[in-house]
Design a protein that fits this description.
elongated, binds zinc ion, 111 residues, 2 helices, mainly alpha
Amino acid sequence: MHAHCAECGQRTELEPGFYYGSAYVSYAVAIALSVSTFVAWWVIIGFSTEDNRFFWWMGLNALFLVLLQPLLMRLSRTIWLSFFVKYNPNWKTEKPEISERVIEEQMMPAE
Ligand SMILES: [Zn+2]
């Protein structure tokens, strides 16, 4: 992940360990996706106590989430960052705010 936005220069890591919190977002996104695949499976294929369709859904859903992980991680980090950095309509002329919690020696190495 870039240390700063390429367009406006906004720092992407606001404090040391900033992205630990994105795990909560990632969890919520994974649950939402799982509910979606569950409903889609229910409507298209259906569930039954007579066979293993439920376990097929569980296995394929787990595989789906693992394959999507690189995308989900980035999406979750972006959503997490958007909780703390508000959009500035004058971003072209105004410099981004620098958080007082940024300690250069404790930040992740850039790129
Ligand atoms: Zn930007």
